[in-house]
Design brief:
2 domains, 8 strands, homodimer, two-stranded antiparallel sheet, Transcription Regulator spoIIAA
Amino acid sequence: MNLLPAWLRSYRPAWLAGDLTAGVIVTVMLIPQSLAYALLAGLPPEVGLYASILPIVAYALLGSSMTLAVGPVAVASLMTASALQPLAAAGSAEYVTLAIQLSLISGVMLLAFGALRLGFLAHFLSHPVISGFITGSAVLIAVGQLKYILGVKVAGSDVLETLVGLAKALPQTTPVTLAIGGASLLFLLLARRYLAPLLTRLGVPAKAADLMAKLAPMAAVIVSTAVVWLFKLNETAGVSVVGSVPQGLPQLTLALPGVSTLGQLWLPALLITLIGFVESVSVAQSLALKRQQRIQPNRELLGLGAANVASALSGGYPVTGGFARSVVNFAAGAHTPLAGVISAALMALVIAALTGLFYYLPYAVLAATIIVAVTSLIDLKTLKEAWHYDRADALSLLATAMGVVALGVEAGILMGVALSLAALVWRSSHPHMAVVGRVPGTEHFRNVERHAVQTVPGLLALRVDESLFFANATVLEDRVEALLAHDPSVRRVLLICSAVNQIDATALGVLTQLERSLASRGIEFTLAEVKGPVMDRLRSTELGQRLQGKVFLSVHEAFEHAVQVGN
Amino acid sequence: MNLLPAWLRSYRPAWLAGDLTAGVIVTVMLIPQSLAYALLAGLPPEVGLYASILPIVAYALLGSSMTLAVGPVAVASLMTASALQPLAAAGSAEYVTLAIQLSLISGVMLLAFGALRLGFLAHFLSHPVISGFITGSAVLIAVGQLKYILGVKVAGSDVLETLVGLAKALPQTTPVTLAIGGASLLFLLLARRYLAPLLTRLGVPAKAADLMAKLAPMAAVIVSTAVVWLFKLNETAGVSVVGSVPQGLPQLTLALPGVSTLGQLWLPALLITLIGFVESVSVAQSLALKRQQRIQPNRELLGLGAANVASALSGGYPVTGGFARSVVNFAAGAHTPLAGVISAALMALVIAALTGLFYYLPYAVLAATIIVAVTSLIDLKTLKEAWHYDRADALSLLATAMGVVALGVEAGILMGVALSLAALVWRSSHPHMAVVGRVPGTEHFRNVERHAVQTVPGLLALRVDESLFFANATVLEDRVEALLAHDPSVRRVLLICSAVNQIDATALGVLTQLERSLASRGIEFTLAEVKGPVMDRLRSTELGQRLQGKVFLSVHEAFEHAVQVGN
């Protein structure tokens, strides 16, 4: 029984209409997107279609989101291209095999992270770093697609090189291709902005108008394919078209990577895994919260892991939960992953019988689809907000975005992660500490620098607002010594541990040495408000022995004691 | 005026006797050690002598410790050998140049860290990791020296390979070499343990006896050199000796590394820099505290940086503050770095006129000196203590030690740092949180799981004991949602921010989304005890706007309000 997912066991007939509608609409979006993203990944179009069938079903069985649309997405496609282009010629059989293996490795990593409950690792990509990464990737993707719009051949490994190449190749522009690509681009941009309001004004209900506007790419695909077919523009005007796409369902095969391939692919696979997971979970979560549902990050790891393994088994490439299709799926009324399963079934139908329809589809239109899709990912709002709220966050966003554009996706994201870790290191090694005094007439104690409080002569009461461990223990010691140097009359140091949840072996060593050194100078070292678990472990140590009778339950008690014994 | 160090400007004649004595005694230790550590580093003996002159003077001018003895040390010598052996043949001119450049790069890094006040970076090597690293290195060094004791040739890049090689080479043992090496080893081990008590029993004052025991290596050097010279054992019995050491003061030269050398040496240089700095500061600090002096980490960076640059300029290799010589320097009565300057002058004398004395010095004795010196670095006490206090720390110690022995010094220390960072990541992503209630009859609020406290129906009061940032914001959100799922009667969430010193852009985003999501479910989100600086920045954000009138000064106030408004 438990093998069936919960949503299927408790399925209600009332949900079927919504799931069916959403399944159909998402399929209409998915067809051009899966072809376009395969192009972006440097893969033959059928690989994009393969990645849009089994992965969806696998996620439906194991994932925790009711509305996430899994499949090929722009950023993972770009990352796939960036990982594989140094290893094999784009579109070659070897390249396709590597893409399949990349998907397999990423899937296994996701499953392993899920089994080890390592979902928390994804928290180490901060929002500004992710935002910067996505924005940088969007620029990279958009620039990379311009050659298809112009109908020229340009090889460039970075943005600058690509732009220079495009400028040089401008005289070779294929006019008809540019006309088709430019018209599609214009149509899609206008449709995104004005189609829904226009349809509403024509009497279409607002929600339906919104959904219909999302189908503009399919309209562009149909119209342009028809035009190219009608005038045979691929032969008469040199318009590049998709050509024959192999018909038939994907073969199930297992392509295990060898050790040297593993060595080449583990890092890109890890980055695709982390970025894909973070993106997918944030989309799934924002949709779930709208319906007061919950996403379980460890279930998501399993769901996405299964989806990637399924993709690898059926000849696809790395997939994850995508933003645009998920939002449409949700808005079109999807209640359960059945919507996805319906979509998968329709895609299977397309690939089994209808791939001939894509023969005259011009690449320029796919490129226009990609460009319009990714420009909506460029996120200046987060940058603006971060700039006002936290300059350091804004700078890490900018650095990551520029790193991606200038150095490529892997170096860019690694730079972002390094920046995040550096921030963590910096933060951890600078714990907040405050010398406190008593608020007159109360048992409350506050920072002497911020409040008018009473202190006891000869007593230095220091509150440290973080657990003590290797990264900050010496900082505490330095602070105490600096305060003592500043006020030589101190005869008693009180360390207030109300925020200390843990003292690791390094910090224990530092405190032990501090206590000994203070004792040798005739200064008493005392503690207050030590938490139960911390005290339990401290008791059996040398420091614990030496501090017997010098640990106060409350700061109040410690102050009273200091007043009584005087200097 | 300020160009002279403070100790020199306020020098008192009364200090001179102590500084002179210490300077002489340290020199007698330094001569065999500098030769031995050069051997360990794979360098000709004179490089060890060069590294023992100018660096000491440079440190005396810029460092902050009064008693630190700077020069060649065991661990940095091992790290030098490990960094250079893949790049050039040990002892070759190219190898020597690389060692000089390594010292220069490390010196510049130290100076840069000092100028940028990056001393805090060294805190990221936790005590257990350092202890494990030193212990592993000591094993590696000791095993590596056995071939000199046996008088055989063995090439092995790791411990296992070396041991196997030694076992195979056993039949080729040079008996006289083994006799000299074994006798020295035995003498040094016995001297370390029993010489001081013996001398005390013979009427020598305890302190003098301790110091004299430290001169045992010099005694071994003199006696063995005399024996080899007398019987010309180098010719008659195949005993390897140091041979001719170039006489004359080192030439000042600047050997700048090229770009490709920089690429090869930056990582080993960084590791030598960090390890050397951490070791040196901890020795300097423990000695300074005994005399109630202070060490300034950023001054130490400058002092050690200058010492390494000076070493490079005068043909030496990476130096740092050593444990054994510093302790002897302190115990022999050194008051100021003048003791070091005297030592440097004596070393200059030795190299200018007396290197001929080392001709018959057998390598086996130097190896015995090294083995005895490093076995005292093997630190099982820290392991034992960590095992009882914090199992995770003990495991990271063991992992680092085994990493060094099995994989080498660089991989070992990198593993240790990675473990430390992983611990930091784990800790940061798991902030302590507690649902609190009121201690009856007071204005104090405590964890409901630990204390008998009163709660208000419909109010969830959650205290988070850490700043909120990218690594833990989602964890807080998950916790709130889990608590709400557990108690659907909650109508008001109170987040107690008494320990929140900062909310970064990621956490702000998460809180904003949480507030919106709660509001949509009719649950009010409120804050209490928000610190001034945090509130200042929050005020201008969307969340700050939405929370107007919902931020309470104290938890008490928030509870009173919740009781009054009821559900």
